[in-house]
Amino acid sequence: MLRIEDNGKGFNPEEHLGPHEGHFGLLGVSERTKRLGGQVSLTSAPGEGTIVCVEIPLEPGQNLIPLGGTSVQPASEPQERSVLS
Q1: What is the phi/psi pair of residue 26, to 5°?
Q2: Whole-prediction pTM value?
Q3: Residues 7/43, Cβ–Cβ less than 8 Å
Q4: Average of pLDDT values for 45-50?
């Protein structure tokens, strides 16, 4: 699970810019996550900040291969890191 949270301005998700305005960020994240059998959730409100969660299921013992090519074992316990702007 990847969770990104900020304490910024937030926005109304129903009114966010999308592909019709040339912005593909959230759509791209959603499409890639679905291809991997995962789910994306977005929580935001004006003045409240934003939380984006991406969950992708892994089989037990499956190795992850990052871009650098070094094998990494999944963490046995869920880990959360918050980045505040």
Answers
A1: -65, -35
A2: 0.59
A3: no
A4: 90
Per-residue pLDDT reduced to its tens digit, 71-83: 455 555 544 444 4
* Two tokens, residue 54: 């991406």
Which strand ranges, in their side-by-side order, compose the sheet holding 50-55? 2-6, 50-55, 39-44
34-61 mean pLDDT = 87
Residue 81's pLDDT is 46
So what's the architecture of 2-55 in CATH? 2-Layer Sandwich (3.30)
What one-character-per-residue DSSP string does 3-61 give? EEEE-S----GGG---GGGT--HHHHHHHHHHHTT-EEEEEE-TTS-EEEEEE----TT
Give me the residue spans of the domains in the chain.
2-55
Amino acid at 9: K
- Residue 55 is encoded by which pair of tokens? 């969950």
